Amino acid sequence: MPENLTPLNAIGEFALINRLQAGLTLRQPGSVLGIGDDAAIIRPTAGMEQVMTTDLLVEGIHFDLSFCPLRHLGYKAVAVNVSDIAAMNALPTQLVVALSVGPRFTVEAVEELYAGMRLACEAYNVDLVGGDTTASRGGLTLAVTVLGEVAAGQAARRSGGKPTDLLCVSGDLGGAFMGLQVLEREKQAFLADPETQPELANYEYVVQRQLRPEARLDIVHELRELGVRPTSMIDVSDGLASEVLHLCAASGTGARVFSEFVPLANPTLEAAAEFNLDPITCALNGGEDYELLFTVPVTDHEKIKNHPDITILGHLTDKADGTNLITKAGQPVPLKAQGWTSF
Amino acid sequence: MPENLTPLNAIGEFALINRLQAGLTLRQPGSVLGIGDDAAIIRPTAGMEQVMTTDLLVEGIHFDLSFCPLRHLGYKAVAVNVSDIAAMNALPTQLVVALSVGPRFTVEAVEELYAGMRLACEAYNVDLVGGDTTASRGGLTLAVTVLGEVAAGQAARRSGGKPTDLLCVSGDLGGAFMGLQVLEREKQAFLADPETQPELANYEYVVQRQLRPEARLDIVHELRELGVRPTSMIDVSDGLASEVLHLCAASGTGARVFSEFVPLANPTLEAAAEFNLDPITCALNGGEDYELLFTVPVTDHEKIKNHPDITILGHLTDKADGTNLITKAGQPVPLKAQGWTSF
């Protein structure tokens, strides 16, 4: 360990908590008491319901520290949880972090991770109010739990979609998957020859999609401004196909997704071409785009059709019609979930 | 793997979630939507504040599956978090579980773990409303986050103690530590000679204290019934000495803890004698008793002095008087934190 770094066992758990706590501020009016007691104290807003979600990121399964900087990992851990809050049509308010780190981690490494989480807390206006930091025999594990608020009865469940509802998605898809392909190729090149410099300059967009995804809270705000309430919503973490199937299963509907409308960014198309991959397949089965997939009543078509960052992919149908991708030639092809199987 | 057990990768994440979800029921009126969407939906009770806490249990650090049955582990993971809620003078309402399991775990093993969590949810009247289950490269990691409620302004912080307040503790101390000593001795005997049968019959109480601690929600209820509001409170997870120091540091006070009043159960005394350990030291520095340490105004002395399960250990003092254990001979000895240092 270089001399300027501090092993975790040199300062102990309580001193570490004090150091991590130092940079935190509470922004939410409902955050009565943050880190430092047996539990945080929260004052919920009258008339609001809450949403609560937890997500675990495990080293070697969800991230590879050989190409994921700790600061980005901290940011991503918060973003992917906030994405679940956004997918309920809610806004995040407080979060807690449970962290276990192996013996090779230093105080400075944990501070980098927290710096990324603090950045994300600022970006999403959410307060880090509690945590647990402990040792592990292995790598890094990070469990973030976020609480959010939404006006009573306004939460968007997966189950609210109706046949004829328009099926919409924010942003573009497949980029995070292509970013992972690029990063893994560069890692292999580096392992083969440690003198190699990684060539990432041409892949900035897709690498950023993989390493630093953003939760689409902006879409939640904009739909409210447009007066559109999503009838159902889910975030795209496991690939479009898997999420359409989840949404249809919960809503008891089928769907028609037009392949020509699946939004793909140019850098994603270019990277897919280079890797000889079908970009539609990357969008359908690649994961971690963290866009929002949602349905709106067909009567809201006018309100959203010109939104620059929302694409209408197709529409829900009766369940009996199945859940199909419609090819450019007009052929229906049943969608299959090939999302992450982490086991 | 025996034929009647199912490897996790044979069923996949979504099927596993469905199986785990099957046995869950929602009891709390505020639990609007449980597992199965991007997030749970919770309706907070008007006029209440919430408390929120998270705790991580890591295999090889916090538990040893060679002597901790998975069902007990599941129960304990919930209990230790509920203990933090109790330490705020609150009652638990909802919880979420983030779980990562290595390749050697089976579906049946994860179901056992969940069975233990379900038992604890029943015992503490709390709803399991969400989770994340994923693979790991190593062992088992379990992060539980619990939400609780308390009437606005009635939460007990660590910082509310005043000089002259009586310092009280529930139950008895040092038992969980002695249980761990017994279990580790039997494990060593087993490793030396796998034919050995573990000899636990004489140690039932202390082993139970280690493997299946209970959160003292009963004390929270009873103090309310007695009309006693703790001025400060903390749960005893790292040993009495460490917790007294935390409470005094947060309250800006000193304390006098009379060693003759430290509550020790007979089985703890017997086990300590057998292991040649000072039982007071076990209470001060052993961890995981999960009793409640709290202060009450001296005017409440009459209300609690006859409670069979609350012991008055001493009282808070001015900060300048220090934080001392008073020996039977009347000598003050400064308390030192020797709690868990997990790094």
From TrEMBL, chains A, B:
Q: Name one GO biological process term.
A: thiamine biosynthetic process
Pathway the protein contributes to: Cofactor biosynthesis; thiamine diphosphate biosynthesis; thiamine diphosphate from thiamine phosphate: step 1/1
Ligand binding (Mg(2+) 2): D55, D84
User: Keyword Kinase: yes or no?
Assistant: yes
Binding-site positions, ATP: Y114, G131, D132, R158, S237
Instruction: State where Mg(2+) 5 binds.
Output: D238
Cite the binding residues for Mg(2+) 3.
Answer: D38, D84, D235
- Protein's UniProt keywords contain Cell wall biogenesis/degradation: no
Catalysed conversion reaction: thiamine phosphate + ATP = thiamine diphosphate + ADP
Q: Where does substrate bind?
A: H62, E288, W340
Where, in this chain's numbering, is Mg(2+) 1 bound?
A: T54, D55, D132
Pfam families attached to this UniProt entry: AIRS
| Residues binding Mg(2+) 4, per UniProt | D38, T53, D84
Enzyme Commission number, as recorded: 2.7.4.16
The record's family statement is: Belongs to the thiamine-monophosphate kinase family.
What this chain does, per the entry, is described as: Catalyzes the ATP-dependent phosphorylation of thiamine-monophosphate (TMP) to form thiamine-pyrophosphate (TPP), the active form of vitamin B1.
Q: Remarks, anything else?
A: Reaction mechanism of ThiL seems to utilize a direct, inline transfer of the gamma-phosphate of ATP to TMP rather than a phosphorylated enzyme intermediate.
NCBIfam families documented for this protein? thiL
Name of the protein in question: Thiamine-monophosphate kinase
